[in-house]
Amino acid sequence: MSNDSSDAETEESREQGVEFGELNAALEQVEYPTTQEQLLAEHGEETLDLADGEVTLASVLAEQESAEETDTIEYDSPEAVRQAVLNMVGDRAVGRTDYSDRGGSLPDEDGEAESDQSL
Q1: 111 assigned to some structural domain
Q2: Which of 22, 28, 73, 81 is the right S-S partner for 36, CB 3.0 to 4.6 Å?
Q3: For residue 20, with 0-12 CB atoms within 10 Å meaning exposed, 13-18 middle and 19 or more buried, which class applies?
Q4: What is the DSSP letter of 114?
Q5: What is the pTM of this model?
């Protein structure tokens, strides 16, 4: 069993399928409240790892803004920024859709679920 601190840091920076990586620590250093414009000027090029590849913070948060409201969106904490990211990435962070590793089975062609459990 490994006692590697980088494993713990990775687990702490992954949330709901989004790997925040170095951005996690950077968000803790930001002076809050901050506007989206200020946040993106300082950290917009930081990358997030999703199931379908890497994206920048700017590309994720840009989806929620129009040109007029860039400077009016405010964040009051690192958690608020992380939540905005999670809201905006949606299914892109999930990976394969309609997949479950929780066991059970899907209905067969007759619409009945096959059971792999014995009583």
Answers
A1: no
A2: 73
A3: buried
A4: P
A5: 0.64
